Input
Amino acid sequence: MQRREFLKISSLGIGGLALSGTLLYEFFNSANEDSDGELKRFPTYCEICFWQCAGWTHLDKDKKIWKIIGNDDDPHSNGRLCPRGTGGIGSYYDKDRLKKPLIRINDRGKQSFREASWEEAFDLIAKKMKEISAKYGPESMALFHHGSGGKYFTNLLKAFGSDNIAKPSFAQCMGPREVAYAATFGTGLSSPEPLDIRDTKCLVLIGSHLGENMHNAQVQEMSDAIDKGASIITVDPRFSTAASKSKFWLPIKPATDIALLLSWINVIIANEWYDKEFVELNCEGFDQLKQHVESFTPEWAFGITTIEPDVIVKTAKAMHDASPAVIIHPGRHTTWYGDDTQRLRAVAILNALLGSWGKRGGFFIPDKASIPHHHLPAYPKPAWTWKDTVDGKYNLVDLGLANVLVDTSIPKKTGDNSKVIKGWFVVGTNLINTLPNTTHTLKAIQNLDLIVAVDTMPMEITGWADVILPECTYLERYDSIRVSQNREGNIALRMPATKPLYDTKPAWWMARELGIRLGLKEYFPFKTQEEELDWELTQIGSSLKEMKQLGVKKIPTPDHNLYIPKGETIEFNTNSGKIELYSSAIDEEGFPAMPVYTKHPEPEDGFYRLIYGRAPMHTFSRTANNPNLTDLMDENTVWINPKIANLWDLKENQYIKLKNQDGIISTFSIKVRVTERIRIDSVYMVHGFGHADKKLTQAYGRGASDTEMITNVLIDPIMGGTGMRGNFVTFITETV
Amino acid sequence: MAIDTLKCVGCSDCVVACQTENNVPIGYCRDWIVEVTDGTYPNLTLENRSERCCHCSNAPCVRCCPTGASHKTEEGVVLVTHSDCIGCAACITSCPYDARYTHPEGYVDKCTFCYHRLADGLLPACVSVCPTKCMYFGDIDNPESTISEVLKNRKWKLLIPEAGTDPKLYFLI
Output
């Protein structure tokens, strides 16, 4: 019985008696225990994607992992996991998992390894790290990470003396958005984004394909918004699932979004459709903006975007009518054309003009719980970081750029080579498929003295590692408490539902063991993660015992205001303390203070712009071998418009290879999907397929890799992100 | 059961939730997603449907079953008693919706509306997991039920009504 129903029934049974605090605690305490005091189900939060939905792992009668069900109290999932979360059991049962520590015995990339004990693996890594530190300095060790394990290795690297740490989720994904929102509103949006979609009256999606990307609570709230009759406006060259749910679909010519955004701003200002009171109270630079967009009329934008002027006006009016309950969705994967910070600035400006910041149905002001960490000694100050290698660029960025760490790993032919990276930790991210321009990544790898991969699965990157440390899956381990922003502060626990399969270990333990070998034990004060979690939870009046019962605990900040009361203002963390329509920070960096449209190259004859995206049942390249999820989708297809298919005499389900503008041919063939849902100047494929690691028996050779086709990388001059949509492909149809 | 095609995003969560809840072997399924695109660029429509056994009132699979393994419960749920099934597949042939498959262990298997969960007051796994809450499940004979309310207020369609099986899976359009 679900707890909610049980609650309903039990409160009826009590016959209107109020549940006292103690009674309530006892009720919760007993809710998740059987008569033997054993847990009935095991709290977790999902690791299959970054949304980290909380749920319960259930075992069957043989005590084997059976299913994972969402936690009703969790604002990330509201008790409903997405297909990947539901299929998360496949990550545990995957027979191709890494099973033992491995040490390379041949050249990098040849995939020849021997099994090793944990002691031997750690000793080897520690020895190599000390050698690198002695020869080049501790800064020459770098860390790339994604997911829960990253925190522990971040602690290790910082204690070791390096701050060359990066998550590809920044410079390859949401970085431009974070920098643009910080420049405009004084804060990035973080995750989950504080979007009040459930109460919005108008949701504008620009290339964001909610429903195909299963950002769980957002997909749920979009559905609520549909129920309530919200207008959805989707801008996408592809007829996405979201487009099919929309009142307006704007089938824009790719790479022209900024023109559309500028013209929307033009229409909204020209017609006085902006929120005058809000702008006057909160915004800086309105007059400059007004002048800046004067010439960006819908007629001007039509010539660029192929969107009819009256549609531009109508959609701007729909936003105005809904204002302030309107959201121009900031997106998440925003590294497209290299002018991405400026595009996201235009999105942020539109939201500001419509007064949706801090408004019901717009952006809410998130609440977040805070958990103290045990005191650690101060980290040594590194002599240099990646920031000292970029000639004074990217000053608006405070997170590491993965692509810059790669660049810093390739010694320069001439000049100063004192700042060079010689060792990598790669934790939970398959860099080969995550970073564009695989050849460049491999060149960096060849220059390293040490590469350590921590993962649950053999991935392309583990094939290049010197030492592979096999991590147990999230269903078999504790991890840090999930502390995330939302409408109410909340925390979630992940605990093992079963002992780890094979000789696999949690990343927490690995980082500590390495720390001990490197003489850094004082940075790892707890012997077990359970002790650490219990210590942290006790500081906030909870405990590990309580969290095992609850899974998720709401810890709302008293008197937190989700919305800015009408007519009131708040201090924004920008140079001026206001929302900056004219960005002084970007201006100071020497870039246009207001977004401008730049024309991007178009495909040559016979080439088509490569657009990539997500499928609801997969996360990047991580899930391509998950038996439950590959059962739903086991390869990607290339979407081609029927007119183009006709021209090339391509048939549905035919396998072809792709060749890009630089002559790179896809390693594997990809199935043709002939569909009206894509423009004639573009093709589309789902990211994450075309795995070349034979150890992935389900995923090997299934579909093609979009990453392989992305060799033209458009660097965002403001924040260093890697724009990946400036690549064009043609078809190789002969049997290959 | 009713499925709101205006909200369904075709994510297949219902499929994998059913597979895990009911231990359906990988490679088989009791429910599935159908995606129908119509029109030419840029005048297009797309319909996503989560499909499964329609638990027909006039169920050919029940009529043609030689052993009585295929049967209908008093609530109207069509079930297969695995131990009585000889795997002759007559029901598979007779089903206009292709809703049944032969389990590797030899018997025919299909959607049960998670009959084992209903007894505990739980919704079918697919309904309770759906991120878009696009599925409604309940007693259509009770005019007070949510599903009766939804069917009264929304436009809906049936699949292959001409087969005359009186299906009980409604698609809101």
Q: What stands out?
A: Chain B touches chain A through 36 residues (CB under 8 Å). DSSP finds six helices and ten strands in chain B. Residues 2-172 of chain B form a domain with the Alpha-Beta Plaits fold (CATH 3.30.70.20). Strands of chain B lie at 2-4, 32-40, 43-51, 70-72, 78-80, 101-102, 108-109, 135-136, 156-157, 170-172.
